[in-house]
């Protein structure tokens, strides 16, 4: 069978160009020989890192076979590695985890003790990740034609970076990528032309960056063929930005001048090549934006958009209805599955509906193992030790937690993502992203678990002591009806002395006290990114949580085992809670956040 017909049979239409054909062939080769590739990846990682302090601990003695690896190397969490990572952060340059020097830390949106996890990385890792990026458009071109005839309007941002005590950079993975030569000096590719200039993407001030990206996107509205951001929340933030800033944006377009709030010299310089007075365009944009009804605004302003390129799987699924509203139901393409630790794989059918999205893990990216996930297991040590399954041995319909071994030195590291196998592409399995473990609340890249919420409530309760008031029960809800979304905490109070009940002001302060004790990613989203709104407490009538229990029991919950859900989203429960609200309170100011880590 010719390669072309093989691609057509496997993936769809013929490749768009020679470069695409090569990329698609690479996918075929990797996935046809998934197990062989995995074996080589493991051998390569173990042999190059044989002399690291970490591997020497387990006396591998340079052995690189799978069976020995599995029998001697334990599965670990971030907390297990934290002391080693801290030593690297403090400046110890000896080969602790990796034989190759750690080039920087990628700061994960997953946190440990309230701070972003620090993921060590090595220089060559960007070559591997770039390779994965280079596969995305060749796959997309199989399904959407003519993407070389226009541009992508992508809202991409860098965030602040810090240095560890030992002088290594610590920054989010995409900040590292956008600042790398792989991105900045990428060769021209007609299928990958963005409306946003690098200068705007690389500006650390989020207002100036967003303003410029939006302005450029408006100027080139007819060229735009796809609109995107990394996550759905980011694209909605851009829409909200347009709602708030269209008068100034249209003023700039009308006059060909740049908003004086954009002071970054490199942006000012590059915008001289973009800005021109265009009263007709200004009138058009103003007419669309002044309209109260923003339904379908994306396709009205960017009429040639073929799809939205945003991740809407996992926690981002909550934004699908809002995106559908603003885009008039354009296809939502989730192209890849990746993390700070490792990039995992891509979606070979990017036009599939969000609920049907599966990611194919690319076996060359790292060594992947899968911990069977049993939602009913206690996770106690007395349970028999879990057996990890190899990439090609996972079973369809089963759920697993992803465990990775990376070139940068993470060995059998639990990522915390739960995946379900939906099928295979050649011998490489495809996974539906089920959820991240232990995440209760998420609006943007924040992830708040039950323990963090509990701690935040306990912190806030301190303020109620002098009013002899306690919180009888609580639950929470991620409210994404507004942009930005915000956390809602329902409280049932026991006020022991009604003549001395907590004032409005005190309850507002309770909101802030909760925010202060939430993790640094939450506070960064609140303070620096403005991607989460003020936390809200809704005080409900006494007896509400008993009603909630009655409701759950009426639906079959066991009275003995009933536990108050610490997060709710089921509409009838929300309606019950909201109908019992006696007062609402919002955080009066921003919590504390600085780029510096607390530890
Ligand atoms: P970070 O370490 O901050 O880069 O976040 C990585 C995490 O984001 C992953 O472990 C997943 O939990 C989540 N994530 C990344 N890509 C996707 C995706 N395509 N769908 C759902 N969740 C994703």
Automatic annotation (TrEMBL):
Pfam families from the UniProt entry: GH3, GH3_C, GH3_M
GH3 middle domain sequence ranges: 359-436
Keyword Ligase carried by entry: yes
Lipid biosynthesis listed as a keyword: no
Stretches of the chain forming a coiled coil according to its record: none
Record-annotated GH3 C-terminal domain positions: 452-570
One MF annotation (Gene Ontology) recorded for this entry: ligase activity
InterPro entries tied to this protein: GH3 (IPR004993), GH3_C (IPR055378), GH3_M (IPR055377)
Keyword annotations of the record: Ligase
Domain of life assignment: Eukaryota
Family of the protein in this entry: Belongs to the IAA-amido conjugating enzyme family.
PANTHER family: GH3 DOMAIN-CONTAINING PROTEIN, INDOLE-3-ACETIC ACID-AMIDO SYNTHETASE GH3.1-RELATED
Protein name: Indole-3-acetic acid-amido synthetase GH3.1
Native organism: Forsythia ovata
Lineage: Eukaryota, Viridiplantae, Streptophyta, Embryophyta, Tracheophyta
């Amino acid at each position: 069978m010719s390669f072309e017909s093989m691609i057509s049979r496997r993936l769809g239409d013929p490749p768009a160009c020679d470069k695409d054909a090569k990329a698609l062939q690479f996918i075929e080769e990797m996935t046809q020989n998934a197990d062989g590739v995995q074996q080589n990846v493991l051998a390569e990682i173990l042999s190059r890192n044989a002399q690291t302090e970490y591997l020497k601990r387990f006396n591998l003695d340079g052995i690189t076979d799978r069976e020995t690896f599995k029998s001697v190397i334990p599965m670990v969490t971030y907390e297990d590695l934290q002391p080693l990572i801290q030593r690297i952060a403090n400046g110890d340059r000896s080969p602790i985890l990796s034989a190759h020097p750690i080039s920087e830390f990628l700061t994960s949106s997953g946190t440990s003790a309230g701070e972003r996890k620090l993921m060590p990385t090595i220089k060559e890792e960007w070559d591997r990740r770039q390779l994965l990026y280079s596969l995305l458009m060749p796959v997309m071109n199989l399904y959407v034609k003519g993407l070389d005839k226009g541009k992508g309007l992508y809202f991409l941002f860098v965030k602040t970076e810090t240095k560890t005590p030992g002088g290594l950079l610590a920054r989010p993975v995409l900040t590292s990528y956008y600042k790398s030569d792989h991105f900045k000096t990428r060769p021209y590719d007609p299928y990958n032309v963005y409306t946003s200039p690098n200068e705007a993407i690389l500006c650390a001030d989020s207002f100036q960056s967003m303003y410029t990206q939006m302005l450029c996107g408006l100027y080139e509205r007819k060229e735009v063929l796809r609109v995107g951001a990394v996550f759905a929340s980011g694209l909605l933030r851009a829409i909200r930005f347009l709602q708030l800033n269209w008068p100034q944006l249209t003023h700039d377009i009308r006059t060909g001048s740049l908003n004086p709030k954009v002071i970054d010299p490199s942006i000012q310089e590059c915008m001289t090549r973009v800005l021109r007075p265009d009263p007709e365009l200004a009138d058009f944009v103003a007419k669309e934006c002044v309209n109260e009804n923003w339904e379908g605004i994306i396709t009205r302003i960017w009429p040639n958009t073929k799809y939205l390129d945003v991740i809407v799987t996992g926690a981002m699924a909550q934004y699908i209805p809002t995106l559908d509203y603003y885009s008039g139901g354009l296809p939502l393409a989730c192209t890849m599955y990746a993390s700070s630790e490792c990039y995992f794989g891509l979606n070979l059918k990017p036009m599939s509906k969000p609920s049907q999205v599966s990611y194919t893990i690319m076996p060359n990216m790292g060594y992947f193992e899968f911990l069977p996930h049993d939602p009913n297991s206690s996770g106690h040590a007395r349970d028999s030790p879990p057996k990890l399954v190899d990439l090609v041995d996972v079973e369809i319909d089963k759920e697993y937690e992803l465990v990775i071994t990376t070139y940068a030195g993470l060995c059998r590291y639990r990522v915390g993502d739960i995946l379900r196998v939906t099928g295979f592409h050649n011998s490489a399995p495809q996974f539906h992203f089920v959820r991240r473990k232990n995440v209760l609340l998420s609006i943007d890249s924040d992830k708040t678990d039950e323990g963090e919420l509990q701690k935040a409530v306990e912190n806030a309760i301190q303020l109620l002591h002098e009013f002899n008031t306690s919180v009888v029960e609580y639950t929470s809800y991620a409210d994404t009806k507004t942009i930005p979304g915000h956390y809602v905490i329902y409280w049932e109070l026991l006020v022991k002395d009604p003549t001395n009940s907590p004032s409005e002001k005190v309850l507002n302060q309770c909101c802030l006290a909760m925010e202060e004790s939430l993790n640094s990613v939450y506070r960064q989203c609140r303070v620096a990114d403005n991607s989460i709104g003020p936390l809200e407490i809704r005080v409900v009538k006494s007896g509400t949580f008993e009603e909630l229990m009655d409701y759950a029991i009426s639906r079959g919950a066991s009275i003995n085992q009933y536990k108050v859900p610490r997060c709710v989203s089921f509409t009838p429960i929300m309606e019950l809670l909201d109908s019992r609200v006696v007062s609402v309170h919002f955080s009066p100011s921003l919590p504390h956040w600085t780029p510096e880590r607390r530890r």
